[in-house]
Structures
1.
Amino acid sequence: MAKASDSIIDQEVTKYPIFVLHQHDLEIGIPLTAEDDTNPWKLQASSLEEFVSKQIIEPKKVDSFRTIYKSPEKFFCLFVISELGAKFIFIPR
């Protein structure tokens, strides 16, 4: 994830990379893991801009999201989708 996050920021794709961790078939982001029958979890790289364009984050809530977003140099932003629901979490790099 570190390499992907650095590339996303260095190539000026976004200042807000978001990694989506899920067990479903989703059309969001770029897959970072290959299909694997032994591990149902998938990881994809996305961005705040894509979350807004796909209406996962409402445009009026973008500023609020930016205030809680932690430095991508120090943290990974994960959007975890599980049977318990979906949640943003930040984990140290």
2.
Amino acid sequence: MTMLIEHVAIWSKNIEALRSFYERYFGATSNAKYVNSGVRFESYFLTFPSGARLELMQMPGVAEKPHGAETQFLGYAHIAFSTGSKEAVDTLTARLCNDGFEILEGPRTTGDEYYESCILDPAGNRIEITV
């Protein structure tokens, strides 16, 4: 049996802003919004050119992260997107910086030889942009 990760999900207070961000900068395509009015749950599934999927979810009452966006904490740490080249990492990182998104690190070569930058999406989730 082959196991594949089917999708990863992110809770957010503004799934519209996240949907727009991932479509604009990472080439995602969104399905129609799912709404469960009984529990006030809303979600989108985003599909990336590679076939990977990300579910964006919002619902009243979901707790905030335990710390600020710059602080690391236990649990899922980041999503990494491969661009295919150092130049593409540089270009996308500069575009995000110019558009006002917070760049946490890089672009740089890490100690384990990854070339990457680390940014925050509109909800404060860490994203690595790699070769």
3.
Amino acid sequence: MIILFNKPFNVLSQFTDKANFAKERKTLSHFINIKHVYSAGRLDLDS
């Protein structure tokens, strides 16, 4: 299965944010609620 998703600005291109930041950043998991899906390729946070 292939899922095409236009990543919004200021969202990490991964499903978890393991960095220790004061405020939580949004990740793909905030938008895609499908198990066993992984991102292919990377975009910057502000892309």
